[in-house]
Each structure stands twice: as C-alpha cells, then as structure tokens.
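Intended use. Records such as the Cytochrome bc1 complex cytochrome c subunit entry shown here are meant for training and evaluating sequence-to-structure methods. They are not intended to support clinical decisions.
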Amino acid sequence: MKKLSARRRHPLAALVVLLLALACTGGLYAVFAPADKAQADATAQSLTIEEGKKLYTVGCASCHGTGGQGTSDGPSLVGVGAAAVDFQVGTGRMPAATSQAAQLPDKRAVYTQAEIDQLAAYVASLGAGPAIPTEEQYGPEGADIAKGGELFRNNCAQCHNFTGKGGALTHGKYAPNLEDVDPKHIYEAMLTGPQNMPSFPDSVLSEQNKKDIIAYLGEVNSDQTESPGGLSLGGLGPVSEGLFGWIFGLGGMILVAVWVAARTAKAKKS
C-alpha cells in the first residue's frame, strides 16, 4: 500500500504539464509565425512589382527605356524612388502628352492609386530612392504654422509667391499654384525636386520642416482665413499690387491734379 501511494501523481502534476504544453506551443508560434508573415509580405511585394513592371512596359518604357535607364525622350528612373513616381503620375504630369513642352502641367491622373502604387514599387526596385511619405509625415498633427511660414518665405516664395499662388519663371516655365494640392504631393515635391524645382532632402529641410510648410500652405489658402492686409488682390504679390497702385493710385493723383487745376483756373477768371 505504501508503494502504491508513493507512485500516486501529485495534485499539481496536470497543471504543470498543461503549462509546459502552452509554453511549447507559444514558443513554436513565435518562431514560425513571423517567418510566415514575412514570407507572405515578400510574396505580395514581389507580385506588386511584377504588376508594376507590366504597367511600366506598356505606358513608360518607350520614353524611359525598358529597364528605366532613360532615353533621349525621357530621363533615367534608376534611383528616383517611389515618391517621384507617386508625385509625377498621381498629379497627371506623367504620362506626358508631349516631351517638347517647357514644363509638364498637372492634369487628371490616368492611373488609379493602386496602379500608381504598383508602378512606384517597380521603379523603386530599380534603385534606392525616396519612399512615399506616410500621413504621419505630412499631416497637420504637431505642425508649427508660424515656423512653416518662415521656412516657406525663405525657401519657396521666390518662385511660388508668399502664399503659394505660383509665378512665372524663364523660357515658358512656371512655379505652379499650390492651392488645393494634396499635402502628400507637396511633401513629395519637396523631397524629389520635380522638373524645375530644387530638391529639399531631410538634410536640408527636415521632416518636421516639411510638415510645418504644408501646414502653413493649408492655413493661408483656407477659405476661413482672412487677409490681414485687406484686399488680397489674388495673393500674387508685388506684380498685382504694383499694377493696382499704378492704375488706381497714380490715376487718382492725376484726377486730383486736374480737378485742382480746373478749380484754380476758374478762381482766377472770377
């Protein structure tokens, strides 16, 4: 009887076995599940790139080359990154109607956003470059509008005007109006420097700086924002203001001078 009682299981033995089983199951899941997820992500990315290559071959290769190396009709896309593709194709500048224009205008996008993402993934696979920014990077949360205005006036107003209304450049080129432009596309333009615009990488303008500038543009172009100086005259700056001054200011002075001269002549006659 003593031997039988000695071999009897401890009351906690079943609980210990259960805990060990759970621990083993959790360990095996931790080892294999991330690998499966990473493999699934890699497969999905590979399919996205493959679809992007098909779109590229049909719509882009004739100008940019079959491998993105560029031709006489289009620059190389190796190393431009996904952000450049998202900007150029997302704003309708690409595909271009003609390669002879001084500057490509924005127009309705030809591709859907899903197709643009596929094209961007393929071009990004050709060489490392700026990635498409996230909403956290260009969203208004945490932005300093006053700092953005200062940065915009120092770096951008020379071409885009102090409220982003755009302006003329040389040889038929121009700085486009930034009103109603998607904040993501503004961020990408600063990051990649499309066409005549210089690029502003994070070493020149940090992510926070870009966020501040975008917030400033959103504020000054808001329908709720009033012009502190009164009549904004389109927000085009010294050209429209100078023209207004010449026409109405100088014109008014001439009318006053004529009126004074007429009154003086009439007073002398009497």
